[in-house]
Design goal:
This protein is mainly α and 198 residues long. It is 80% helix and 0% strand. It has six helices and no strands. Bound molecules: protoporphyrin IX containing FE.
Length: 198
């Protein structure tokens, strides 16, 4: 009994060293995916695996991007005005730069993997997916060419006076809110394209 307890606590100890680090935890998740590949999909490695695998990468990068978009619109943007002035730098200096890093690169990864999936024969090529892809491309354009350049001014990564910063913050917020709106029809198209005729 004591030995079983010891083995269990050793396993839990090992597991917690993995869970303590986000990259190790991601590695564990990827390892579990690899296990599923070996169990169920090995036969597809000879052909037909590429499209579905890139759809998987596409959805992972897509939820990273849209998850952060929802974090900005449902949590950060509404709450920042209520934060006491002396605590605000924590958002501007630490949280926002890190969130924006993952936000813009996951947007690019979603576009690249989405276009790869689109170019494979396993993808549907109907009006619904074309509409979703166009909405996604507009949203990614907004991230890289409007939100990020304006956020750089707000965060002080490029020089701007107080007036320019206030204007940049408003434009970035309205563009982010526009992407929030577009995310629903875009996702509707992504998930129904294969399931409904249209
Ligand atoms: C940015 C431009 C984007 C392009 C070019 C694009 C392209 C595609 C393509 C070609 C498919 C495959 C459709 C099929 O054959 O079933 C797809 C599916 C999908 N995409 Fe996107 N996409 C984009 C953005 C996004 C975003 C931002 C998300 C957010 C999560 C997303 C989530 C999905 C989902 C959930 C599927 C369905 C997978 C399935 O059910 O098979 N896409 N996308």
């Amino acid at each position: 009994m004591v030995e079983i307890d010891e083995t269990a606590s050793n396993i839990l100890e090992k597991l917690s060293t993995i869970l303590e680090k986000p990259y190790r935890a991601l590695g564990l998740g990827a390892g579990l995916v690899f296990l599923l590949l070996l169990l169920y999909h090995l036969a597809y490695l000879g052909g037909g695996y590429f499209g579905p695998f890139f759809t998987f990468l596409h959805v992972v990068s897509g939820i990273t991007w849209i998850g952060l978009l929802y974090y900005f619109n449902l949590v950060q943007i509404p709450i920042v005005p209520n934060i006491p002035a002396e605590l605000k730098p924590a958002i501007g200096k630490y949280i926002a730069p890190e969130a924006l890093f993952w936000f813009r690169w996951s947007a690019l990864a979603t576009v690249v993997t989405g276009l790869i999936v689109f170019s494979t024969s396993s993808a549907v090529h109907n009006f619904t997916i074309i509409t979703g892809a166009i909405l996604g491309l507009i949203m990614a354009f907004n991230v890289w060419y409007i939100i990020w350049p304006n956020q750089k001014k707000v965060l002080g990564l490029v020089p701007a006076d107080d007036d320019e910063k206030a204007k940049a913050a408003r434009l970035a917020m309205l563009t982010s809110r526009t992407n929030f709106v577009l995310s629903l029809p875009m996702l509707y198209c992504m998930v129904t394209a294969r399931l409904l005729v249209g």
